[in-house]
């Protein structure tokens, strides 16, 4: 019988590494901007488009409905997001950044890039490009499994 050794089980290793990176970034976002990781993800996704539904955010980020909903409510309450009716689907709303939300994004984005650079400074660009390509291939494989 083949024994499962958790520390060599790739899904486990990916989860541990992802959690370590996310925790490091979460501490910075919370301390500097008062944002949780889900809140920052919403802001970042919405900054890339004019308006988007919560369901579309869930699809793009792989966050569950409840997490997206809670983050959206918190950001609307802080005046960072606007909710507008979705004429194509009366059950959903379009989310967009307010001027304050765009200003916050403009402050957070450079810090995010700085943290990314610090975390991955030990790797060459070729290694990073290969790593991203492999992650994308893993995404496809996981969706097909």
Automatic annotation (TrEMBL):
Keywords: DNA-binding, Transcription, Transcription regulation. It comes from the Bacteria. One of its GO terms (molecular function) is DNA-binding transcription factor activity. PROSITE patterns: HTH_MARR_1, HTH_MARR_2. Residues 1-140 form the HTH marR-type domain. This is Transcriptional regulator HosA.
């Amino acid at each position: 019988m083949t024994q499962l050794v958790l520390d060599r089980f790739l899904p486990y290793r990916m989860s541990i590494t992802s959690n370590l990176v996310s925790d490091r970034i979460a501490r910075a976002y919370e301390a500097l901007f008062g944002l949780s990781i889900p809140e920052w993800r919403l802001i970042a996704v919405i900054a890339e488009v004019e308006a988007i539904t919560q369901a579309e955010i869930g699809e793009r980020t792989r966050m569950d409905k409840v997490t997206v909903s809670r983050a959206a409510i918190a950001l609307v309450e802080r005046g960072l997001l606007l909710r507008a009716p979705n004429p194509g689907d009366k059950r959903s709303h379009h989310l967009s950044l307010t001027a304050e939300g765009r200003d916050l994004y403009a402050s957070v984005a450079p810090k995010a890039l700085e943290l990314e650079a610090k975390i991955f400074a030990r790797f060459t660009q070729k290694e990073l490009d290969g790593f991203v390509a492999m992650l994308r291939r893993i995404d496809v494989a996981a969706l097909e499994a």
